[in-house]
Amino acid sequence: MTSTNTSYDRTEFLPRLQKWARSFGFQQLGVSDIDLSQAEQHLNDWLAAGFHGEMQFMERHGSLRTHPEQLLPGTIRVITLRMDYWPSGAEDAWQVIDNDQLGFVSRYALGRDYHKLMRKRLLRLSEAIAKEVGPMGYRVFTDSAPVMEKALAEKSGLGWIGKHTNVLNRQHGSYFFLGEIYTDLPLPLTEPVSDHCGSCSACIDICPTQAIVAPYKLDARRCISYLTIELRGSIPVEFRKAMGNRIYGCDDCQLVCPWNKFAQHTHEMAFEPRDGLDAPRLAALFCWDEATFLSRLEGSPIRRIGYECWLRNIAVALGNAQSSPEVLAALNARRDDPSELVREHVQWAIAQHALSSAGHDRAQ
Where does [4Fe-4S] cluster 1 bind (predicted)? Predict the structure, then answer.
């Protein structure tokens, strides 16, 4: 049911709403309508190409993703919000990537999982709105339902979807989380912004696995973030060398983006690095048993991939590392790991070091 409350001045209310959003820890708020027909065509084409790989949830919900009013009947507006996550206390990303004895974790995942934090803030903001305007229908989302969050962020003016398919903001780059409030409140719309990628192809050129197959088109099956986070089986051999030491996600396309020189550090202590995950030694991580994994990563988004995939990812990174007694000992300690998945990747890693050693011996 659509809200019939008209006792507030809609034009004057939006600036107040944006001010409230900042008080709850968000850096920007926008409002969009629910017409996602253009995004729907793009999504259908992407799914038809099979670019979603094993992410069956992308096609499971039919039209719910592109029709907000089907997900929450009565929805006529979507309030979109962004929250910066770039941690000020983290080791330099490129220095970590260039040190093959260390593991690289995507900078969004160094601290606590953002889902609960953002959801609480979105609920508090929604309650503040309802207190001001009276009864209204609403539901909050933080990557928790079939929601086209990037398309909605673009429509509401939070930024534009760049060639790497992340949302970009001219003043803040792309290091931010997105959240949404579906509502039946007839709020005024905020204006979209234009695309400012221009002729730049830095993100396309740097991608280690060439996952950005064309501007604005990502084949997730090739993406290191997909391979280390979403994929549950064996990582295709063709991508293992290119993964380098990236053990959870990949930030290369964002790190090289010129707009991220304007990125702001987060003010949320929850997003600052925990347990040295900004520059961890691979061999040390590979020694964790499952109880340590669960304990050290409690409240972390990394935990959702599970212990087995965590070891799988580290095994690949150790296979790409320069040989050392520490690296070889770590791999040999898991040569007979109970997990077939882990054993397969450990065997591959050990074989890489054998090949490297044989090549070195021939060169002597």
Answer: 197, 200, 203, 257
Is residue 363 pLDDT above 50, yes or no? Answer: no
Tell me whether residue 223 is in a domain.
Answer: no
State mean pLDDT over 309-334. Answer: 98
Tell the residue number behind the tokens 């109880």, with chain if given: 291
Q: Which domain holds residue 42?
A: 10-183
Question: Which CA distances in Å does 360 have to 99, 101, 332, 356?
Answer: 20, 19, 21, 6
Q: Express each pLDDT in 78-90 by its tens digit.
A: 999 999 999 999 9
The pLDDT value recorded for residue 61 is: 80
**31 and 14 in contact (C-beta within 8 Å)?**
yes
In a domain, 302, yes or no: no
Catalytic choice (100, 143, 195, 337): 143
Number of domains making up the chain? 1
In the predicted model, what is the mean pLDDT of the chain? Answer: 94
Annotated binding site: 65, 143, 167, 178, 197, 200, 203, 207, 223, 225, 250-251, 253, 257
Q: Which pLDDT score is estimated for 58? A: 87
Residue 141 falls inside a structural domain: yes
- Asked if 143 is an active-site residue, the reply is yes
